[in-house]
Amino acid sequence: MLKDIKKGAGAMASGESSSPSVTPEDIIRAEKILFSVFSRYGDAVLSFKVISEFIDSHPGKKFFIVTSNQLHPYAERIFRGRAEIFGLNKKKNPVRLLKVKKRLKAEDIDMGFNPFSLGEDSEYFIGLTRNSYPFRGVKEYTVTTNLYKIVRDYLQMKSAGEGGLHKKLKLGEVTRVLIAPSSSNVLKSMAPELVEKLVREVRKSFGDPDITVALLEGDTMALPEGVLRFTFGKSAKKSKEFLSLLDTTELFIGVDAGPLHLADLLGIPSVGVFSMTSPETILDYGNSVLALRDKRLDGIYCIIDSCREPLCMSELFDKDLLAEEREFDISKEARVERKKCSVS
């Protein structure tokens, strides 16, 4: 996603036309607003969170959301009737696509936005509105700009707050733990041996609770005895199953990926385990995630091209991980490290 933003910024810098500008007054005048969200898991969840805030701050308007079938259950849970939501798979159901297109055209919608959705699908739907404002990235943003800030800026919203990210995790009895150790980026993910260490520590800390590990589709990682397996999938059915799993979860532990954003948004006590990316960039203002990261990477967003194995992740597991107390100040933007690993 951040690479896409940089591509968008490059296009603007080279002289190509940028998105039409929108003002708070334009939004106030609008009666109907459409959001088109066709993006990766994490980008979509954080966009849904900010859109939810946007809807709450603009009462009296009518809102529409078009998204993928996979994301539809998450949107329904987050918006809870405050917007009309359409889930689509244009390849498998072209007839529904035509019906949704007809319906949206008939609504004569005033404005269309597509936060963190850079594909043709998202721009197609906002193009059905009177005034569309494509999300194309902004020149001044960098990889260390907080992701939630980018969406709020795009929607002309004020910052949600300031100050430290870390809040002390307060847990009573924990009987069900969900671990999501994987990202599409291997440098953000836990290796199988780290998952084993984490399972041992969770059992030691909480008296042998029920543990489920949620893995990406196609991941055949062997799990410790007694640990349940959940496999993500790109379908509404799988998304509903994951929401049901979260509903029974008392502690969520995950890496920098979509499930961590979702667990925090749903109010589940959460631990975020970070390697290359900085919590200041990834987490939202006022979140309740206990963010864990190697102290040697404080204030650093690491994008060293030669890195093949995240030592910063593995060395976290050489200590009492869940007892680690840290603070991350979202008001201080991290610096980018491209050359020297601070952990090796």
Q: How many individual helices?
A: 12
Mean pLDDT: 87
Distance linking N and C termini: 27 Å
Which consecutive residue ranges, at least 5 long each, have pLDDT under 50? Answer: 1-17
Query: In sequence order, what are the helices and strands, one letter per element?
Result: HHEHEHEHEHEHEHEEHEHEHEEHE
Rg from alpha-carbon coordinates: 21 Å
Overview of the structural elements:
The protein is of the alpha/beta class. The chain contains twelve helices and 13 strands. A six-stranded parallel β-sheet has the order 8-7-6-9-10-11, with helices on one face. Helix 3 links the parallel strand 1 and strand 2. Helix 3 packs parallel to helix 4 and helix 3 packs parallel to helix 10. The radius of gyration is 21 Å and the shape is globular. It starts with a helix and ends in a 7-residue tail after the last strand.
